[in-house]
Predict the 3D structure of the following.
Amino acid sequence: MKLLSVGELAPDFELPALIGGVKRKFRLSSQRGKKNVLLAFYPANWSELSRTQLTEFQAKSEELRARQVLAVSVSVDSIMNTTAWEREIGPLDFPMCTDFWPHGQVCGMFGALREEEPMRGAGDRVIYVIDRIGKIVFRQGCGLEELPSLRMALNGLGGPS
C-alpha cells in the first residue's frame, strides 16, 4: 500500500482506544483546531521495539504537550490485548487505538497495512505528523525492525525542537 503524501489532508477515522487505561473512542477530527497529532502505526503489541517506541512517547510527553502534539498509536491488536500490554508497559497517557475490526481498515487508509510476509495483515511501522488543520506535514515509513525518528517527526512541525 502507498503511504499518504505530505500536504494531503489526513482521512478521518474513529477507533476504539485505550486512554489512560480506560476504553474510549478516539476520532482524529476531534483534534482539528486543537492539537497536532503524531500518528504512529506499529506492527504488534508485545514486541520489544513497539515497547521502546511507545514508552519513548510517554517519556517525551512534556515536550509533546509543550509543542501542542498529541501522540496516538494504532495497531491491529484487539482492545483486550492492548489493555493487557498497556498494564505491563504503562501507564501510558495517550490514545492507543485498536484497528482490530474491520481488520486493518484505518491502517489501510494510511498505507500502513502489511500486504506481504513477514507479518502480513499487521500494521507497518509508520508515523505521520498531522497539523491542527488536518494536513500531513511529515511521514516516515520504517522496516519492522527500525524505529522512526521522533526528533525528525517533531521537526516537521517547524519551530524549536
